[in-house]
């Protein structure tokens, strides 16, 4: 009797929410009370190896159920797919999910639906890397350049980057890749920390955490700004006094300003030598970012965590609107689209410094930066991965940071799998934490922990 072909048998979804608003972790000028959350999924198969694919979209509380529903809507495209074929070519599923015309109408290629596609696609890459017995960064770095090019959707970006140019970048990037992989394993990838800089923290906590960051080996920290200029000036003064003149301090406005406000505010902060101004205005405003960059130089302009797809990134690069490109592992359409964005950034010579923090974003995005270093750009100069020290304990393969550097993951996969006990405790609304939080405010009211 012929052996059956292993297939995807289930896409299980979970609404996972952590009550981070209670300590103001993650607070900024635009998002004062986030509850870091994950619309989480597990791909299950009937293969004998028992391996699963894990993925998620990051949200900040209310609406996480909407994100889960969007992932659920993709289930018919996934159930029944042959596992071998899916892992051999994740791009086929990526194209099918983006190409569903009725669901595409809800974007196209942006917003809740696109984030859901990214979560499912990332889960496939997690499964593929596990089956190859490699961490994702290594799986990508050792992949054939022509195969990687085939994973990229060049529609809408071929005027800026052709498949032939992408192949040339990847072929050149393979030169010396083995040496760089060995260096990565020995030293890790440089990071920076946002932990001191949440807007809800007082000056004493800011100062203490900033000094601790330097002691921990970080050469860059980040502060949230944008609510009150006098407060920002005071906090920047305190941070600079805490870390000295040689540590970089980036600042992040989280889209708070109009273009003229961004210019005025950033210039006011320049006595304290901000390294970059992040998300100074709407992530959709390409020309606004270009105007800000021109006006605030030599302060760099950075954005990307809310940039919705490769097309907007293309325009930011074409317009010379940013100095630093910030990919997000869970905002766009998964690994496939992030490959496109990394290739665009390499083509334009703009450094990539990913957005992280959140729920599991550090765990995911480290793989993309490490691939970029080993097998694409070959450098970490002016490149750092954001690090925030919370919620890592909920993952089976949490990030490890030593002397301000991300250690290269060695466990096969995308580092996306959550601990079953964390899922059981923080699943909303029936996990043990939420079921027992009877004294908490109404979770559907603004400012509540949900």
TrEMBL record:
GO BP: any one term: carbohydrate catabolic process
Catalytic activity: L-fuconate = 2-dehydro-3-deoxy-L-fuconate + H2O
Xref: PROSITE patterns: MR_MLE_2
Domain of life from the UniProt record: Bacteria
Pfam families (alphabetical): MR_MLE_C (PF13378), MR_MLE_N (PF02746)
EC number: 4.2.1.68
Cofactor(s) it depends on: Mg(2+)
SMART domains to which the protein is assigned, alphabetical: MR_MLE
Domain Mandelate racemase/muconate lactonizing enzyme C-terminal residues, every copy: 203-299
Protein name: L-fuconate dehydratase
Species of the source: Streptomyces boluensis
């Amino acid at each position: 009797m012929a052996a059956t072909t292993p297939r995807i048998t289930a896409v299980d979804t979970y609404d996972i929410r952590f009550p981070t608003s209670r300590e103001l972790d993650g607070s900024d000028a635009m998002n004062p009370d986030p509850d870091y959350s994950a619309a989480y999924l597990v791909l299950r198969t009937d293969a004998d190896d028992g391996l699963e694919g894990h993925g998620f979209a990051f949200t900040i509380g209310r609406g996480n159920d909407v994100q889960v529903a969007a992932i659920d809507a993709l289930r018919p495209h996934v159930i029944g797919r042959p596992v071998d074929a899916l892992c051999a070519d994740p791009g086929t599923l990526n194209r099918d999910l983006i190409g569903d015309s009725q669901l595409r109408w809800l974007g196209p290629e942006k917003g809740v639906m696109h984030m859901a596609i990214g979560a499912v696609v990332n889960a496939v890459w997690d499964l593929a890397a596990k089956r190859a017995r490699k961490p994702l960064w290594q799986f990508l770095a050792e992949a054939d350049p022509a195969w990687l090019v085939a994973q990229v959707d060049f529609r809408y970006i071929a005027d800026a980057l052709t498949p032939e140019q992408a192949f040339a970048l990847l072929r050149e990037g393979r030169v010396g890749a083995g040496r760089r992989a060995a260096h990565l394993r020995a030293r890790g990838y440089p990071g920076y920390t946002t932990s001191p800089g949440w807007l809800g923290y007082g000056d004493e906590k800011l100062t203490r955490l900033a000094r601790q960051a330097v002691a921990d080996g970080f050469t860059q920290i980040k502060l949230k700004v944008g609510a009150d200029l006098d407060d920002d000036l005071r906090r920047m003064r305190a941070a600079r006094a805490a870390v000295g003149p040689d540590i970089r301090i980036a600042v992040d406005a989280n889209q708070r300003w109009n273009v003229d406000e961004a210019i005025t505010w950033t210039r006011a902060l320049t006595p304290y030598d901000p390294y970059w101004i992040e998300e100074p205005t709407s992530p959709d405003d390409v020309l606004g970012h270009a105007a800000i960059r021109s006006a605030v130089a030599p302060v760099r302009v950075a954005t990307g965590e809310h940039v919705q797809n490769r097309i907007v990134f293309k325009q930011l690069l074409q317009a010379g609107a940013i100095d630093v490109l910030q990919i997000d592992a869970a905002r766009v359409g998964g690994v496939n689209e992030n490959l496109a964005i990394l290739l665009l950034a390499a083509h334009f010579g703009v450094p990539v410094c990913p957005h992280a923090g959140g729920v599991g974003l550090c765990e995911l995005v480290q793989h993309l930066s490490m691939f970029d270093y080993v097998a694409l750009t070959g450098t970490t100069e002016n490149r750092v991965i954001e690090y925030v020290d919370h919620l890592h304990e909920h993952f089976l393969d949490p990030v490890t940071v030593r002397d301000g550097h991300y250690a290269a993951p060695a466990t096969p996969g995308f580092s996306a799998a959550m601990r079953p006990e964390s899922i059981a405790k923080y699943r909303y609304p029936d996990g043990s934490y939420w079921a027992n939080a009877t004294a908490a405010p109404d979770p559907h009211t603004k400012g509540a922990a949900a």
